Automatic annotation (TrEMBL):
EC number(s) reported in the record: 3.1.1.13
InterPro entries cross-referenced by the UniProt entry: AB_hydrolase_fold (IPR029058), LDAH (IPR019363)
Cellular compartments annotated: Lipid droplet
One Gene Ontology CC term in the entry: lipid droplet
Protein name as annotated: Lipid droplet-associated hydrolase
Protein family: Belongs to the AB hydrolase superfamily. LDAH family.
Reaction(s) the record says it catalyses: a cholesterol ester + H2O = cholesterol + a fatty acid + H(+)
GO MF annotation: an example: sterol ester esterase activity
Keywords per UniProt: Hydrolase, Lipid droplet
Primary site of residence: other
Length: 166
């Protein structure tokens, strides 16, 4: 793939309060808020990457750009950090929504089940219900993806895992 093409792809960094915890989300493509887009202009599918440990989104930027480019830039690609693994720089605004569930509602937000509930809360709050999802998990992100599939059958999910071939 031509690296100059990947360089032209916009990557928007946001820090969002999700379940009461700072969460980094990197968004490839022009769509930063899927609810603000007019329905006719809204993409039909979101590619959602759940990181492996240690949960840093920046590791996945080249992969996310390549995915966005390979879909002819028709679909957004978002990468989400693990809850509390990345702190916002002091000058960066942390976005909040009125729909954010309280951190006390999620038992052990930093544990494995808490991370699953964190990703579910993000999807339910920041992605329109009718949007199709391709969820890609790497390492522990695979487990989180499978748990989301099990716990939220109402979500229109397609699942891919990123595990090395043995």
């Amino acid at each position: 793939m031509d690296s100059s093409i990947k360089e032209e792809i916009p990557v928007h960094e946001e820090f969002i309060l999700c379940c009461g915890v700072e969460t980094q989300v990197l968004k490839c493509g022009p769509w930063t808020n899927l609810f603000n887009e007019q329905r006719a202009n809204r993409p039909k599918l979101l590619i959602f990457i759940i990181t492996g440990n240690p949960g840093f989104c920046s590791f996945y930027v080249p992969f996310a750009k390549a995915l966005h480019s390979s879909t002819n830039r028709r679909f957004p690609v978002w990468v989400i950090s693990h809850a509390g693994h990345v702190l916002a720089p002091k000058d960066k605004k942390i976005l909040t929504t009125s729909d954010d569930s309280d951190a006390q509602a999620v038992k052990d937000i930093y544990g494995l089940q808490g991370q699953v509930e964190h990703k579910l809360a993000f999807l339910r709050t920041h992605v329109p219900k009718e949007m199709k999802l391709v969820v890609i998990g790497h390492s522990v992100g695979c487990y989180i993806s499978l748990e989301i599939l099990r716990l939220a059958p109402e979500l229109p999910l397609m699942l891919r895992t990123l595990e090395p071939k043995k």
